[in-house]
Design a protein that fits this description.
The complex is a heterodimer of chains A (322) and B (348).
Chain A (H helix, E strand, L loop, with lengths): L1 H28 L4 H8 L5 H10 L6 H13 L5 E2 L4 E2 H36 L4 H15 L2 H15 L16 H40 L2 H8 L4 H25 L7 H6 L5 H10 L3 H29 L1 H5 L1
Antiparallel strand pairs in A: 1-2
Helix pairs in contact in A: 1-13, 5-6, 5-8, 5-10, 5-13, 6-8, 7-8, 8-10, 9-10, 10-13, 12-13
Chain B lengths: L1 H4 L13 E12 L2 E13 L4 E5 L6 H9 L7 E10 L2 E2 L5 H7 L4 E4 L3 H4 L6 H12 L4 H14 L5 H4 L9 H13 L5 E5 L7 H18 L2 E6 L2 H7 L2 E6 L2 E7 H6 L4 H7 L41 H5 L5 E4 L2 E3 L2 H6 L10
Parallel strand pairs in B: 3-8, 3-9, 6-7, 7-8
Antiparallel strand pairs in B: 1-2, 1-4, 4-5, 9-10, 10-12, 11-12
Helix pairs in contact in B: 5-6, 5-8, 6-8, 8-9
The chains are: A mainly alpha (322), B alpha/beta (348).
Bound molecules: adenosine-5'-diphosphate and magnesium ion (MG).
């Protein structure tokens, strides 16, 4: 266990270095710099002024020096400065991060719960009406564009019924202590989390159903029945846990994409997010922010992988033996 | 009241067999139509007795065993006739809930491949405790003690340490011992073992069979051993039942059948050797041809296309079971006609 985790963490450093170098190279290759955007937006045309800014932002130095300087500063947790927000990149990212993480975790939780449950029911009732209904539902939610689903939910629950807010993350002026704020955020969270969650749930449903059906064919399930266990006991004690491994894999993949997975829904529900920060930063050639988000993403991927390893380790004793 | 009404001196009827299967029929509902995987199978097992079921692969042995346990893969298989009486109770009429209380308690089963018969993510100890908890719940500590006792009984060395092992940490033979421990945990009346040693090394095979016989002697349970191996039959069984294409073609005591196999299929299985009993671990001899698929059984006797002595009638009708001697039955027209001559010892 400890060995596995150590190995994982040893992988993080080269991974992040790779991410930095690769993205640095991509950025250097793309035409234009933020100076072009900035000077255009602010109608600066004085070449001496532009030259001074080039020196100020270190862009007169050779690329390799810029890269080494960047790597060094990342190692000291300094992601640079964003001229656009007039704040450090870390602060800019940290402002957008909680909203994105809350939304993604909520939708993944919904997806896991709904998907695993639906998958189990579909597999236990395979080839019955229940199975068919669930399968059709899964195809529907998987095929329906998430923005369309979001808009439909919004029309029903916000516009028609008026139960939930149309967008944003907090109501202006609501400030009744921590609980009041939490409730307010949850009301805003419900629809975007549901739209995303149902989309992901469709995937979990299909994976869980297939995995359960596969496990049902194993001999040990017959042994369990030969012991006189009831159908529910066989499913819960013998099939379920063995069927979870593919779901854990999917979950790990998904956890790795938390920073980028929700741009569309965040736009529909005007949820403050990293997606739009990223878009804005790319458009304005605000590369320190872009790089910062990418480095953070790779960190999250690495952590997600470590979590998957731990889950595998706990679920399957055969992995422990290796 | 019953005491007063009962006539005190009427002689008791002969004790009914512990397990009595009559005219069991299992149908496979497939695209190719309804196929009889088991066709009017009857058998009896008394307490302390061992019945061996032999036949080539695909003859319907496993399907028969699963039908007794009501564990048929449904769909496509389904019991479509007959009865399975265990201590007088017809298992085919029980609800699934009632059957669950019979499985693992009154009727237990051991499977062919011990490496896949156990759940890979649960410790072997826990898997034994599970069956006790199901049928005979007690405090956790008591059940654990009983599971440990069972592990010692099936001769797992160092049982305390093995208790928390997972199946992949044990050998095939050890896992089969665990499966046996689970099967005998609640002292079943009858134990069905479907090729319990086929997947194991020869030396381990003998140990497992000895263990099963020993446990049987101790508990007096009835035993059904399904096997490919005539050596296993000779060593362990009291009676033997030969199956072909879903039907019983011959049965009798092991001595009688080995001395005078009647059905040409049985003779074929034993090969042309003077006495199959001289080869304790002889596999079934090769018979030219193979078991016909259920979907295209030949008309008449199912064995007619491989039978060295088939004649016209064998291609027209299916032979029914006849009783050439007490406690002996065979389904063959040649035996019916030629009787004794055909019943001479093999190779004589
Ligand atoms: N799940 C199934 N679906 C369809 N046919 C089956 C199934 N299981 C077994 N059969 C068929 O039933 C027959 C008997 O099989 P089985 O009882 O496993 O044979 P044995 O145990 O004697 O080797 C075979 O012809 C086999 O093809
Ligand atoms: Mg078989």
């Amino acid at each position: 266990m400890r060995r596995i985790l150590l190995r994982r963490f040893a992988q993080i450093i080269p991974l992040i270095l790779g991410v930095i170098v690769l993205n640095f190279a991509l950025i250097q290759m793309s035409p234009g710099s933020f100076l072009d955007v900035m000077t255009a937006e602010q109608q600066v045309s004085d070449p001496a002024m532009i030259e001074r800014m080039r020196v100020l932002y270190g862009m007169d130095k050779p690329v390799i020096i810029q890269l080494l300087k960047y790597i060094w500063s990342v190692l000291t947790l300094d992601f640079g400065y964003s001229y656009r927000q007039n704040e450090t990149v870390l602060a800019v990212i940290m402002q957008a991060l909680p909203a994105t993480v809350i939304l993604m975790l909520a939708s993944i939780a919904i997806a896991l719960l709904v998907g695993v449950l639906a998958g189990v029911v579909a597999a236990v009732k395979v080839n019955t009406l229940w199975d068919n209904l669930i399968s059709v539902g899964a195809v529907f939610f998987f095929a329906a564009p998430t923005f369309w689903l979001g808009i439909m939910l919004m029309i029903v629950f916000s516009v028609r019924l008026g139960w939930l807010p149309v967008g944003g993350m907090r109501d202006i002026g609501v400030d009744h202590g921590v609980i009041g704020i939490a409730l307010d955020v949850m009301r805003h969270l419900a629809l975007p989390a549901l739209s995303l969650g149902l989309f992901y749930a469709a995937m979990y449903t299909r994976v869980m159903r297939a995995s359960m059906l596969e496990v049902f064919r194993h001999d040990f399930v017959r042994t369990a029945r030969a012991k006189g266990l009831s159908g529910a006991q066989v499913v819960v004690r013998h099939v379920f846990r063995n069927a979870l491994l593919p779901v854990v894999t999917l979950l790990g993949l998904q956890l790795g994409t938390v920073l980028g997975g929700s741009v569309v829904i965040e736009t529909v529900f005007s949820w403050p997010d990293i997606g739009s920060l990223m878009l804005d930063s790319v458009m304005s050639r605000n590369y320190p922010v872009v790089l910062g988000v990418l480095v953070l993403s790779s960190l999250i991927v690495a952590v997600a992988n470590a979590l998957v390893d731990i889950a595998y380790f706990r679920l399957d004793p055969r992995i422990r033996a290796r | 009241m019953a005491l007063i009404d009962a006539p005190p001196l009427t002689p008791l009827p002969p004790a009914p067999a512990l397990l009595s299967v009559s005219d069991l029929e299992v149908t496979l509902f497939t695209r190719a139509g309804q196929l009889k995987a088991v066709d009017r199978l009857s058998l009896e097992v008394a307490a302390g007795e061992t019945l061996a079921i032999v036949g080539e692969s695909g003859c319907g042995k496993s399907i028969s065993a699963l039908a007794l346990m009501r564990l048929l893969p449904e769909p496509p298989a389904k019991i479509t006739g007959g009865s399975v009486r265990l201590a007088g109770r017809d298992l085919t009429r029980l609800s699934e809930g009632e059957m669950q209380r019979v499985r693992g308690k009154d009727l237990a089963m051991i499977f062919q491949d011990p490496m896949s018969a156990l759940n890979p993510v649960l410790t072997v100890g826990r898997q034994i405790v599970e069956v006790i908890a199901r049928h005979d719940p007690a405090s956790h500590r008591a059940m654990q003690a009983r599971a440990l006792e069972l592990m010692r009984k099936v001769r797992i060395p160092d049982a305390e340490r093995r208790f928390n092992d997972y199946p992949h940490q044990l050998s095939g033979g050890m896992n089969q011992r665990i499966v046996i421990a689970m099967a005998i945990a609640c002292q079943p009346k009858v134990l069905v073992a479907d090729e319990p040693t086929t997947a194991l090394d020869v030396t381990i095979q003998a140990q497992i069979l000895d263990l099963m016989k020993e446990l049987q002697a101790e508990t007096g349970m009835g035993l059904i051993i399904i096997t490919h191996d005539l050596g296993v039959v000779a060593e362990t069984a009291d009676r033997v039942l030969v199956m072909y294409a879903g039907r019983k073609v011959e049965d009798g005591t092991v001595d009688a059948v080995f001395d005078r196999p009647l059905h040409p299929y049985t003779r074929g299985l034993m090969g042309a050797t003077p006495s199959a009993t001289l080869q304790p671990h002889g596999r079934l001899a090769e018979i030219p041809g193979s078991v016909p698929a259920l979907a295209d059984l030949p008309a008449g006797c199912a064995f007619n296309n491989r039978c060295p002595i088939a004649f016209a009638r064998c291609f027209a009708e299916r032979p029914g079971l006849t009783m050439p001697a007490p406690a002996r039955s065979v389904a063959c027209f040649a035996v019916e006609q030629e009787g004794v001559r055909h019943g001479d010892p093999v190779g004589a």
